[in-house]
Amino acid sequence: MTQRIEYQKQAPDLFKKFADFSNSLKHSSIEESIHDLVNIRASQINGCTFCLDMHVKEATLRGERPLRLHHVAAWRESTLFAPRERAALAWTEVLTQIPAQGVPDDIYERVRTQLSEKELTDLTYLVMAINAWNRINVAFRPQPGAFDKAFGLDESGLA
């Protein structure tokens, strides 16, 4: 697939503000390993190859085990994820594919057993951000891996 437009160049101020917002989430109450799982799962659901490629490489650089990365799509059946990670993945899925009736109470209650109010709020912002990145990248089709060198992702060994 060919990239459609370079959206970063078309709206540089908006791009910078959104990138700043996304970067601020690195200092949230949610640990980096869950950030990776959330970014990967939402990108899988949304079919965002650019983001999926980027976040798998980031997770690899941070030491995530390859088998866990392979299991993200089937996290419900996998025994490799802790209850807190399962809660984050469930929240990611329900906010990425919002049901017509909204977020079901049983999912909310299950997630609340693992996350504080602050953590749930931070996680929600994280899910919002990756879904926005997925949407712009699905729309304009940047080439997966195109920014690997600039972001240091070439060090992942996943070319």
CATH class, named Mainly Alpha
H/E series, N to C?
Answer: HHHHHHHHH
**CATH H level, superfamily name:** AhpD-like
Q: What is the first-to-last residue Cα distance? A: 18 Å
Instruction: Report the average pLDDT across residues.
Output: 96
What is the rounded Rg?
A: 16 Å
Q: Give the biggest sheet.
A: none
Number of strands: 0
Helix/strand structural class: mainly alpha
* Anisotropy-based shape: globular
User: Would you give the CATH topology?
Assistant: AhpD-like
How much of the sequence lies in strands comes to under 5%
Question: What's the number of domains?
Answer: 1
CATH architectural group: Up-down Bundle
A few lines on this structure:
The chain is mostly helical.
Can you walk me through this structure?
There is one protein chain. By secondary structure, the chain is mostly helical. It has helices at residues 7-10, 12-24, 32-46, 49-61, 66-71, 83-96, 105-112, 117-140, 148-151. The chain starts with 6 loop residues before the first helix and ends in an 8-residue tail after the last helix. The protein is globular and about 40 Å long. The mean pLDDT is 96.
Question: Notable features of this structure?
Answer:
mainly alpha, 64% helix, globular
